[in-house]
Fold this protein.
Amino acid sequence: MSGFLAGVFVAVLPLLAAGFWLGRRTARPRNSLGGLGTPVEHATFQTLHTATLAAPPLRAGLTEETARRSAKRLRTLLGTDALCLTDHESVLAWEGVGEHHRAEIMERLGGPLETGRGEAFRLTCDIIDCPVRWAVVAPLTVDDRVHGALVACAPRESAVLVRAAGEVARWVSVQLELADLDQSRTRLIEAEIKALRAQISPHFIFNSLAVIASFVRTDPERARELLLEFADFTRYSFRRHGDFTTLADELHAIDHYLALVRARFGDRLSVTLQIAPEVLPVTLPFLCLQPLVENAVKHGLEGRTDKSHISITAQDAGAEALVVIEDDGVGMEPEVLRRILAGESSPSGGIGLSNVDERLRQVYGDDRGLVIETAVGAGMKITARLPKYQPGVHPDGGIPRA
């Protein structure tokens, strides 16, 4: 991660040079700077501040909306009469004068968009007092692919503007690359949720339907109740909206799941729940606890004919909700567990532990992964620490951005 941050820092360095250039253009007497230092220091601060304001829209990718929201800030960075952002097809946003040059600029972008190299050219205009006479094109590239262009327009040709536009375009490209990384991360988490759903589907659905079928003749009312439990659980597990849920909803789905499991195993399985009401509204990643309970059921009953016990507790711990899932089953070697969490080994059921651990770390940070205590014959205790409040994390929300 430090190498990545260093790369971003290097990408910002050219903006300091642009700030210096802007400072030279806009230098004013010391007493007009409000105590911020020399004209160059003041201009550098203004440049970095403007860049900071322009960055958030670009982190969502290059669209008409994000281009419109960032174009004004980018024009301020360059101090030009006009600036536009384009994709391969059209001008996404125009800021400043001379908007009647849109069509001409798009006609001249073929070469730069194809080669990825910047270009400057004279604009033709019949309007005598139009201040826009030259255009400087700087392609926006991500992973060697040209996504569009930043075009700065000015009254005259300027080597300084050519260089400054190129540096600002590089900075914009870094923001678009970060947007790509965010989208890749979102796709990865969505794929992980799909993997969990795929894991839930085959055996659990078959076993649940088999249990329900066994009650159809002997106890129709029981069969009806279990069928409703099954419908509610599968409806929750395969829902399409939102990447987050509440602890209350997740526990409700777990209750449906356990009802089906108890119908299958009878009095071989006992479950106790201790849930503090104040933590029920806490938001957490969707399908985050159910795989842990499924793991507890599997390892609690595996290889034994006597009774197994599972406890689920959710406690209020100040700024966190502390969720603990514990079974008295066969447990496992700590080294085997380490390999599972590292993705080096994936025995049956292991995908649930590694998947949940990875998603918790992605959403809340590396210090919020699962804490698992286990040994052969000693059962397993899994602890999840869920912050009560996290920016960008809410029941109907998407993946929060880092």
Summary: DSSP finds eleven helices and twelve strands in the chain. Residues 14 and 167 are 6 Å apart (CA to CA). The chain has a mean pLDDT of 79.
